[in-house]
Design a protein that fits this description.
single chain; 355 residues; alpha/beta; TIM Barrel; 8-stranded parallel beta barrel; 15 helices; 10 strands; globular
């Protein structure tokens, strides 16, 4: 069902057809059938509500105060729209690439100017705000204004191979971040696997429980294996856990650095089916001993030695048509203007994407 039709259906169920005009005034973001939030029509500013509110930001804050069920319907619709917009192989900028202290709204602007289709946001940057839920809604509106989607939220941890109390705490954090993801129109949250050694069936059960949280808020969780870990460090093992969990809200996150750092070969990019992959974190690394490298050694796509075009071609051949999110942790790039870093990330990504 198209996003606009979904809103119309719930509008009639909760408010009745006689109050549609009032509902439209409060939540009237026009939606293009091409898959995105359109610019508001010229007569939009004539509504009484808009005359009483100076900015779209204040409109977003008003939406948070309405009954929770209606609010969640609207946000769920936005998340559905975001998933539709990232349904092809698209370009994405994970905003950590601009710096750890980057304001998410400023990063969105830089990503749009560089030419990206979507962005990856960070939960801790949102939670540091005085009103995290309102700030998450501001992110959704900023992306709409700039013609972007939100492709991912980073991240949740501590959910795997923990005893009961830490697991409950991790799941509570996951619930809170799922709400923020929904409010920011983000369709998925990255779930970092634990280090150490444990039972893979237990890991799959833990991942399934995490995905149950996603079901409550309408978001997916994408499992990210960590190349420096002892067990869950490569593509095969990460995919194995996702398959064992067999949850409709569970996907695999492929990070090219972690993949090669964990010992996977380029041939293993042919293993997952396209619909098993939630997102790809793409980055590069210089020639050398990859097993001695750290996250800080990542470089922009195309500036290193990874066979990225081959890897992406294998994913594409298996039906993957989702987002490619540039994620680097480079002090050198962080020290430069955000616009310059974003442009370099976009050009690097385009240089390694399959034709």
């Amino acid at each position: 069902m198209h996003c606009f039709s979904l809103i119309q259906k719930w509008r009639e169920m909760f408010l009745g057809t006689g109050r549609n005009e009032e509902f439209s005034g409060k939540f009237g973001l026009a939606i293009r059938r091409s898959g995105g939030f359109a610019r508001r029509p010229a007569h939009w500013q004539d509504s009484p509500l808009v005359r009483r509110n100076a900015s779209a930001k204040r409109l977003a804050r008003q939406a948070i105060s309405v009954p929770a069920i209606i609010h969640r319907i609207i946000l769920s619709s936005r998340a559905t729209l975001a998933r539709e917009r990232v349904s092809r192989m698209t370009t994405c900028l994970n905003l950590i690439s601009l710096g750890r202290e980057t304001d998410q709204l400023a990063g969105i602007k830089a990503a749009a100017q560089a030419g990206f289709d979507s962005v990856g946001i960070w939960a801790d940057a949102i939670e540091s705000q005085s009103d995290p839920l309102a700030y998450a809604a501001d992110i959704a509106l900023a992306c709409a204004d700039h013609g972007l989607a939100v492709a991912e939220m980073c991240y949740v941890g501590g959910w795997m191979w923990e005893n009961s109390e830490p697991t409950r705490e991790a799941l509570e954090v996951a619930k809170q971040r799922a709400r923020l993801a929904s409010a920011s129109a983000c369709p998925q949250i990255i779930a970092c696997a634990a280090g150490g050694v444990g039972d893979l069936d237990a890991a799959a059960q833990d991942f399934s429980g995490l995905c149950d949280v996603g079901s409550e808020e309408g978001v997916d969780f994408a499992l990210e294996y960590i190349g420096m870990s002892e067990l869950v460090k490569d593509l095969k093992t990460g995919l194995d856990i996702v398959k064992r969990a067999d949850h409709p809200r569970g996907k695999l996150l492929i990070d090219t650095f972690h993949t090669f750092r964990g010992g996977s070969t380029v041939d293993e990019f042919s293993l997952p089916a396209g619909d098993e992959v939630g997102l790809v974190h793409i980055n590069d690394a210089p020639a050398g001993n990859i097993f001695e490298m750290a996250d800080s050694d990542r470089v922009m796509p195309g500036d290193g030695a990874f066979p990225l075009t081959d890897a992406l071609s294998r994913l594409q051949a298996n039906g993957y048509d989702g987002g490619l999110s540039v994620e680097v942790f480079s002090e050198a790039w962080w020290s430069r203007p955000a616009e310059q870093t974003a442009r370099a990330a976009y050009e690097g990504l385009r240089s390694v994407m399959p034709s």
